[in-house]
């Protein structure tokens, strides 16, 4: 029987979280294209979970690039560590941390993904502000979420979903200029944002 939804995902296994990431794999190419990622880039993956998106990112940035997979769940990142070993993907650095506490200095990303994570947290603005602190001026980030007017056949229930305008406002308050909006599917949308301070 399906368990009731819990914001911290404790109602489902990591295998199931990973399977859900795989089912929405069709969204990822647009995220990576929007970041204009080149081989050797260093990318932050906020709320990486068991790591499907981090693995796709690692392929895009190549063996000389770096993916920082950040998650507050040590179990989720241990799941990713096992996959990295099995698949021979060393260029992912796993960081067990609450994303809103990340300090600049230790991580040096050129770009960031904040996808399907803000609705799991109590402080979306704190997370976006932390990401903004880590990125250099002009750096690109993608912030993607489930649309509250979607059919809700996948993902969180409607009452847990975040309005695009709210995500936009948090992004601006955090220090980003908002560049573009796209409704990727009836369920999903993405914002492309840029760290303010660019030339
Ligand atoms: C749905 S999962 C994976 C989402 C993934 N970014 C994607 O696009 O498929 C969301 C993850 O965000 C993590 N998470 C939620 N709040 C967090 C926070 N404040 N700091 C770090 N990780 C967080 C959860 O532990 C969970 O593994």
What does this structure look like?
This protein has 199 residues and is of the alpha/beta class. It has helices at 14-23, 28-34, 52-61, 74-87, 124-134, 164-174, and strands spanning 42-46, 66-71, 92-96, 111-115, 140-146, 176-183, 188-195. The chain has a seven-stranded mixed beta sheet, sandwiched between helices. α5 (124-134) packs across α6. The longest helix is centred in the middle third of the chain and has 14 residues, at 74-87. The radius of gyration is 16 Å and the shape is globular. The termini are far apart. The model has no long low-confidence stretch (mean pLDDT 94). S-adenosylmethionine is lined by residues 9, 17, 21, 47-49, 53, 70-73, 76, 98-100, 115-117, 120-121, 127.
Q: TL;DR of this structure?
A:
32% of the residues lie in helices and 22% in strands. It is globular.
List the helices and strands and how they pair.
Blueprint lengths: L13 H10 L4 H7 L7 E5 L5 H10 L4 E6 L2 H14 L4 E5 L14 E5 L8 H11 L5 E7 L17 H11 L1 E8 L4 E8 L4
Parallel strand pairs: 1-2, 1-4, 2-3, 4-5
Antiparallel strand pairs: 5-7, 6-7
Bound molecules: S-adenosylmethionine.
